[in-house]
Amino acid sequence: MLCFHHPDYHYPLPEEHPFPMDKFSRSRAMLETELRRGRFVAPEPAAWGLLHRVHREAYLESVRDGRLSEFDRNRLGLPDNARLLDRCRRETQGTLLAARAALEEGLAVNLGGGTHHAFADRGLGFCVLNDVAVACAALEEERPGLRVLVVDTDAHQGNGTHALLRGRPGRFSHSIHVGRNYPAEKEAGDLDVPLPRGVEGPEYLAALSASLEEALARSKPGLVLWNSGADIHRDDRFGQMALDDAAVAERDRRVLAATRGAGIPTVVLYGGGYNRDRRRTARLHAETVLRAEAWA
Ligand SMILES: [Zn+2]
After folding, report:
1. Cα of 145 to ligand 1 centre, how many Å?
2. How far is the CA of 117 from the centre of ligand 1 (A)?
3. Fewest 10 Å CB contacts: which of 26, 120, 202, 240?
């Protein structure tokens, strides 16, 4: 099973910064030991020309040159500079390479990605580039007629992905999330499932199964991009859901059974994860990848 990952450097953030950048290297270290058939590949940065098909050039240049306004820097939540953009370009390329690999082999993983709050001209909520929208843009040329379903089970609405895929032929954007949580301004997707704050396993899983069934029936996909999200766990700082370990495992099992189990090529992406215990965030992402390996 191919696993794409960022290069080995950390993007340095202060210890008190809310974004757990260390989750990527921590989970990768776990998976290098625990996956039985993992093959690890470090992507090159996604091409500028490809990024421009989704993102405004002025926005990309502002991030690269560290020229975001203070307002834009604050709503992104990360310090803008060339190193951040390089890291995110590699992360984005990982999603495209995972999509190509899944179409060949059935299932592939990007140990990152799912940066679903990024729009064409702005980054929000730690999301610089919208990797899913960029991968979909590349696939439009590479695989004309391919139908793509985005399954977004991160605890927050995939607002940027909704906006960037809206009206694109053969693209279906799903999101199951807490209704009264970030982002305050929602975007209409093809299928949205807003849930109450503090939702627990049984209610969540029933809504998930129903929405997966509807999304698959309506979109008839040839590829699923699954933004998993570790922030549905009850000990997450930002997710505002209350799923315990068993419910998170059942979430994974249901998504994988509905997609890969039905023979649909599937890509697993990380999305958000901000557990109170930083090591636990990495563990939750790694567990999802380990479960996916059973379906590879
Ligand atoms: Zn999230």
Report:
1. 30
2. 9
3. 202
Q: Is 107 helix (H, G, I), strand (E, B) or coil?
A: strand
Cβ count within 10 A of residue 261:
13
Gap from CA of 66 to ligand 1 centroid (Å): 25
Residue-wise pLDDT tens digits, 227-270: 999 999 999 999 999 999 999 999 999 999 999 999 999 999 99
Distance, CA 272 to ligand 1 centroid (Å)? 4
Give the tens place of pLDDT for each residue, 27-37: 999 999 999 99
Number of neighbouring beta carbons within 10 Å of residue 286: 22
Å from CA of 168 to ligand 1 middle: 24
Question: Is the pLDDT confidence value at 8 over 80?
Answer: no
- The residue behind tokens 């249901």 is 254
Residues β-bridged to residue 192: 175
| Domain enclosing residue 10, as ranges | 2-293
Question: 126: domain CATH number?
Answer: 3.40.800.20
- Within 13 Å, how many C-alpha atoms sit on residue 133's CB side? 26
CB-proximal residues (5 Å) to ion ligand 1: 154-156, 231, 272
Total domains in the fold of the chain: 1
SS3 at position 296: coil
CA dist 145 and 82 (Å) reads 35
According to DSSP, residue 286 is labeled: H
